[in-house]
Amino acid sequence: MWASFCLIAISSAAGALCASVPHKLTLVTPQVVHTFPNGTNMENLAVRASGQILCTIITAPDLYQVNPSVNSSATLVYSFSGYETVFGIAEVQPDQFYVLAGNASAATLTSVEGSWSAFHVDMTSFESSGVATIDKVADFPDALFLNGMGLLNLEEGLVYVADPYAGAISILNVNTGAHYVAINNSLTVPAAPFTTPLGVNGVHVFQEPDGPLYVYFSNTAQSLLARMPIDATGTPIGDAEVVASGIMADDFTFDSDGNVLQAVIGSDEIVKIDPSTGTVTVIAGSPNNTELRSVSAAQFGRLSNETTTLFVTLNGGNLGAGGPVVPGAVKMLDLGEALA
User: pLDDT tens across 16-33, in order?
Assistant: First the structure.
């Protein structure tokens, strides 16, 4: 998320690095769900049980709802006054979402330390009233830049929050507002091969069948996806390991078999990663076209007919990334056999 915010002078290198990723013979063609006006850059998304898509904006402090169909409409849910941008989003209880907002400038590539906050977005009455209930959960006075967010423990109301500039993952209790840094290691910090300050980016939890509970996280600067075994409180109980490398990774999700569906912002692709083997397979997009230009996040649909439908956000390649620029958008991919 927000990786193209810091991709000046490295986009061509990223393309070369990602060019070696093996491709399937037939790639999935994305369909447009909604295209935003020029200059609007998408960041992240979450899918409601109703199928509606909530998505965040980099270039404005806005949260939108988008209908999950081809060429559909978008409705502004809320604009966070006093903030410049909205990043991570996660659902904890049904229709109870949490987002990260802060002050950062795409024009100057800067983030205001300590300006970041987490908000509760209650969507239960939105369809009937057109109004979501918004409450601040916590301020982060020491945060450099808050980006990815992922559910850790539903019962306890715990979520992970990634600070890529600090190279750290915090745990936030959305019920109390308490938070603390839980993970900070050599795989979360920004480091080679790229000079972007974006270290740990997307962060999500996955339970292996009859196996360990893992936190997975991407690192944009180090171009990798890693995982670490944790307990139910989010405390690490083992060392972090690299699952896949050579991909300038942004946010991601999991399919029903535990494969990772990874947005690769550096090469405008969605790849499937098998955590047991590290095999990386491109299933959509290409560095040679703009259909998934600067794809930043991915989530599966939740309706009965959407079990293989992947929704993705595009920031469109703006913010100084170099190369072609297209409007930010939400698109969908019918993965079908690509998940087989």
Answer: 344 345 545 479 999 999
